[in-house]
Amino acid sequence: MKKSAWLPAVIAPVVVAGAVAAPVIANAASTPIAGAHPTAAQVIASIARSSDAQYSGKLEQTSDLGLPELPAGSGGSSLQGVASDALSLLTAPHTARVYVDGADRQRVQVTEQLAEQDLVRNGSDVWTWDSKAREATHVVLPDHAAAGTGTEDGTVTPSELAQRAVDAITPTTTVSKPTTTRVAGHDAWAVTLTPKGSGTLVGSVELAVDQQTGLPLQVIVRADGQSSPAFRVGFTSLDYGAPAARLFDFTPPSGAKVTTKDLSDRSRGAHAHGDHRRPGDGTTADRPVVTGSGWSTVVELPAGTVDRSALGTDGSGLLDQLTRAVDGGRAVQTSLVSVYLTDDGRVFAGAVPVSTLVAAAE
Question: What are phi and psi of 245, to 5 degrees?
C-alpha cells in the first residue's frame, strides 16, 4: 500500500451516499453566484464551473478516526509493517503539493523524509511513482474517462470529496445556509450537510467553496456526536494560474520497475475480438454491490476478497487483534466508518454501525 493513497477505498462511504443530487442542484448548475447572499444550491452548483481551473497549492490532511493502535508482539513481520503503514495513512497528518491545469492535467506530489510519491495525469496518461520502492505504474485511460485528480490509489482533493458530498444531497440531508469563511487566504462560502437520520456514523460534512471560482478549498467531516473533525483535507496555500507545462511530463528513472495498465477504448476493442476474461477481470460477479440509500449506504465486495488461509499465522493473528468477533465474522468500527469481514471472505463497509453491516450480510 502506497503512502500517497491518503484515503483508501474503505473510507469512501463516509461521504458517498449513493444517491443523485436534489433537483434544485441540477436546476442551479448553470446559474452563477450573484449577490452577497447566495443560496446553498448556488454555492454547491458553482463547484461544477471549477473543473477547468488552473492553480498550484499545498494541501494538508488530518484524521482522528479513533482507530485501534497497532498491537505489539507481531514479531516485526513484513505484515506488521504493512499494517503500520495502513494505519499511518489514516492517523498521521499528510501534506501534498497539487498542480492543476484544467480537467485533464494534474499532479499530486507527496514528499516525506527521504521519499516521494507522485501522481501525474497528462491527458489519457496517468503515472504513479514511489521513489522509496522505485516503482512506477503507467495507466492509459479510456477516451471517455471522467476528469478529476483522484485515481485508483485513493488520493483525493477537496474537489472530489466535495463532489461526493454533493451526490449525497437527498431528502435525507439538511443543507445549511451559506456563511462566509477564509481558507488559504481566499474568501469562501461554507455550507454544512447534516444527515437527518440516525443510521449513520457521519455527523456532518462542511464544504468551503471559493467565492470567485467555485473551487472547493476545504472539506471537514465530523462524526456523529463529536465536535472535533474526524477528517479534514484543505488547502493551506493556493495560487491561481497555469502551472509550468513540464510538471505534467513524467519519465521513469533508469532502473525503475514499471507496470503498465492499458484501459483505453482501443485496448478494450482488441480484447472484444475474443473472450479473454478471467475471474477478477471486472466481470459483474467481481463488482461491488451497493445496498441501502443515503448516508446508510453499504458497499459489499464479493466472496473471496479476503482469504484468511492465505494470510498465514502472523497475518491471521494480526487481523484478529485489529478486529473484534461478531456474528458471522470479524469487524472494526471507527468514528466514521465500519468494516465487516465475513467468514466466507466477503467485505462490507459503510458509514454505519457494525450491526448494520451484519444485517446487510444476512
Answer: -60, -30
User: Residues 6 or more apart from 307 whose CB is under 8 A from it?
Assistant: 345
The helix (H) or strand (E) run that includes residue 25 is: helix 23-28
Read off the DSSP letter of residue 50.
G
The DSSP call for residue 292 is: S
- Taking only the tens place, the pLDDT of each residue in 148-187 is 444 444 456 676 666 666 666 767 888 899 999 999 999 9
Residue 91 and residue 85: Cα distance in Å, rounded? 10
- Rounded Cα gap, residues 296 and 202, in angstroms: 9
3-state secondary structure (DSSP) of residue 46: helix
Nine-digit cell string for 217 = 478549498
> DSSP labels for 70-121?
PPS-STT-HHHHHHHHHHHHHHS-EEEEEEEESTTEEEEEEEETTEEEEEEE
Write down the residue that cell numbers 477505498 correspond to: 9
